[in-house]
Amino acid sequence: MRERLPLWLHTRCGVEPRTVAAVSVVLVVAVGFAAQQYRAARPRPVTAPAVVAPAAAALPAPTAARAGPAAGPILVDVSGKVRDPGVRKLPPGSRVEDALAAAGGVRPGTDTTGLNRARVLMDGEQVLVGAPAPPPPTGRGGPASGPLSLGTATAEQLDGLPGVGPVLAQHIVDFRTVRGGFRSVEELRQVNGIGERRFADLRELVRP
Fold it and tell me: Mind listing the pLDDT tens digit for each residue in 73-97?
């Protein structure tokens, strides 16, 4: 190795053995580093990662609590010209026609022109068959047949009172169903939608 070194290196370094060894180590390290850089710079094949399909979002299973309890039967008072009048227990969503069938049907010769057989019934309602509709109110004196009973009047009859529409009439029926009737006319003030002015117009036209 010493004989292969250039003449200028012999002269400069004095061709000391330690110098020759140090130069040899530097050369070996340089060659190794160059070889490593060459291998690192070479292009390498890249494998594409496998495509993983996202897991489908789990849909929450319906629970009984979310569905809510099933509605119970309704009680309807079928009276008037039917074969078997009385209170009937019917499934929710029943109509007037179902109530008439449960009461044995309408008596022969009964005029049912003003009876809506397709109307959906409410719990605590009364279906009056064959009875004439009450005459319209005549001011504060009330209808000719007397004050209307809040405990038995149908929603259609209550709708005929001054200032009472279908919605308010149904509120009165619902209030009656929850409270089990009216103990006094004053309780009409507690119905949603009846203020002092409307109560003043109705108090002489109705009775408990």
Answer: 999 999 888 899 899 999 999 999 9
Whole-number pLDDT of residue 170: 92
The rounded distance, in Å, linking the Cα atoms of 66 and 88 is: 31
Q: DSSP letter string over the chain?
A: -TTTS-HHHHHHHTT-HHHHHHHHHHHHHHHHHHHHHHHHHS----PPPPP-PPPPPPPPPP-HHHH-PPP--EEEEEEESBSS-EEEEE-TT-BHHHHHHHTT-BPTT---TT--TTPBP-TTEEEEESPPPPPPP-GGG--TT-PEETTT--HHHHHTSTT--HHHHHHHHHHHHHHTS-SSGGGGGGSTT--HHHHHHHTTTEE-
